[in-house]
Write a structure and sequence with these properties.
CATH topology of the largest domain: TIM Barrel
Number of helices: 12
Number of domains: 2
CATH class of the largest domain: Alpha Beta
Bound molecules: phosphoenolpyruvate, manganese (II) ion
Strand content: 15-25%
Strand order of the largest sheet: 7-8-9-10-11-12-13-14
Largest sheet: 8 strands, parallel, barrel
Length: 343
C-alpha cells in the first residue's frame, strides 16, 4: 500500500502511522521530497482497509501497489533514486563509468591498472578479491589479501572501490573495504545474501542473473530494499541465449522496459555480456545511447596474462578511448535519454 500524506505533515505524524503499522506487524518505509510525503507499507492491505488507513490525520489517500515488488516500483517511489558515493552521484542523469580488472592478482598489476583508470577521470575502481568461477580449479581470487590491496589502491589513487561479495561468511570483510558491493549474476537469487546486503550500510550493485526475467531481477532487488537498504543499482550483464558469437547476449532493451517499472539506477556491463574485447566498445556506446546510468568495463595492463576474463579485458589505450567516446555520446544525448520514470 502507498499511503500519501499531506506535504506539510509533521515527522511525528509520519512516525505515528509507522509505529501503528509496526505494532500490527507491518513494516514500512517513509519517503519525502519537496512536494510529497509517502509511506510504502507492502503488507498493509492484508490487515487494513483503504478507509481505515485514510482515517489517519494527514493522510490524503491510500493506494494499493499492484506491482509484485513494492519498494522497487515507481508505484511506491515516483522519483529516480540518486546514490552518492564520495563525490559521485549515480542516477541523476550523469554517466558513471566503473573500470578495473576482473580480479585482484598482485599489487603491481592492481597499481598499474589503477593508475591509468584514475588518470582517465574514472572515479570507481572495480576488481574482485573473491571470484565466482565456473570451474573449482580456476583462480578463485586472493581473498583477504586482495581486499587489503584494494584498500591500498583506495588510499594511493583516491578511487572508490567496487568489489564482489560471494557469501554471507565474507560479507563483513568485503563491506569494510568496498564503497559499492557487487552481487554477481550467479548470486542474484541467493536470498540470504540479498537479505544481508539489505542490512548493509554500503550501496549494492545487483547484477542480473543470466537467465533472469526483469520481474525476477526486480524481486531480487526488493529483497535488499525491504531490509532497509535503499541504495541499489541494477546491472545488466547479458543473458544466456542461443547465440554462439558471444559469451552472453547483451539485453539493452531491458533498460527502457525497466525504466517503466523502477526508480533504481541501471548500469550496463558489456564486458561480461560479450566476453570478447572487440565487441565491448560498440556495446558500451549502445548502452550510453539507450540511457544507462553507468558502465562496468574490464581492463587489464596485460590481458594475455590475466588470471580471469583476459579475452574481454580492454588494453589501456582502448579503455581510455572507450571512456572518451562514451562521455562524448553522453554529452550529446544529455537530457534526451529521459530520466522521467514510466515514459
Ligand atoms: C565479474 O564481475 O567479474 C563477474 C564474474 O560478473 P558476473 O557476475 O556478471 O558473471
Ligand atoms: Mn570478470
Amino acid at each position: 500500500m502507498l499511503i500519501v500524506l499531506d506535504a506539510k505533515a509533521s515527522i511525528a505524524s509520519v512516525k505515528q502511522i509507522q509505529s501503528f503499522l509496526k505494532d500490527h506487524g507491518i513494516e514500512s518505509q517513509a519517503h519525502s521530497d519537496l512536494y510529497s510525503q509517502t509511506i510504502v507499507a507492502p503488507n498493509a492491505s492484508k490487515k487494513f482497509t483503504i478507509s481505515e488507513l485514510e482515517s489517519f490525520e494527514d493522510v490524503v489517500r491510500a493506494v494499493p501497489i499492484t506491482s509484485p515488488y513494492k519498494y522497487a516500483s515507481i508505484q511506491g517511489v515516483n522519483a529516480p533514486t540518486v546514490i552518492d558515493i564520495g563525490s559521485i552521484k549515480i542516477g541523476d542523469g550523469s554517466l558513471c563509468i566503473v573500470g578495473g580488472p576482473c580480479a585482484v592478482e598482485s599489487k603491481e598489476q592492481l597499481f598499474n591498472i589503477a593508475r591509468y583508470v584514475a588518470e582517465s577521470g574514472v572515479k570507481l575502481f572495480r576488481a574482485g578479491a573473491y571470484k565466482p568461477r565456473t570451474s573449482p580449479y580456476a583462480f578463485q581470487g586472493l581473498g583477504l589479501e586482495g581486499l587489503a590491496l584494494l584498500e591500498k589502491v583506495k588510499k594511493e589513487f583516491s578511487l572508490n572501490i567496487v568489489t564482489e561479495c560471494l557469501d554471507n561468511m565474507t560479507f563483513d570483510e568485503v563491506e569494510e573495504v568496498a564503497d559499492l558491493i557487487q552481487i554477481g549474476a550467479r548470486n542474484m537469487q541467493n536470498f540470504s545474501l540479498l537479505k544481508r546486503a539489505g542490512r548493509s550500510t554500503k550501496p549494492i550493485l545487483l547484477k542480473r542473473g543470466n537467465s533472469a526475467s526483469l520481474n525476477e531481477w526486480l524481486l531480487a532487488a526488493e529483497y535488499i530494499l525491504s531490509e532497509g537498504n535503499s541504495r541499489v543499482i541494477l546491472c545488466e550483464r547479458g543473458i544466456r541465449t542461443w547465440s554462439d558469437h558471444s559469451r552472453n547476449t547483451l539485453d539493452l532493451s531491458v533498460i527502457p522496459a525497466a525504466r517503466k517499472l523502477t526508480h533504481l539506477p541501471i548500469f550496463v556491463d558489456p564486458s561480461h555480456a560479450v566476453g570478447r574485447r572487440d565487441s565491448v566498445l560498440p556495446c558500451a556506446r549502445g548502452a550510453v545511447a539507450i540511457g544507462a546510468d553507468g558502465l562496468l568495463i574490464e581492463t587489464h595492463c596485460q590481458p594475455e596474462q590475466a588470471l580471469s576474463d583476459g579475452s574481454q579485458a580492454l588494453l589501456q589505450s582502448d579503455f581510455i578511448d572507450l571512456v572518451d567516446q562514451c562521455r562524448e555520446i553522453h554529452k550529446l544525448l544529455q537530457g534526451k535519454t529521459t530520466l522521467h520514470l514510466g515514459f
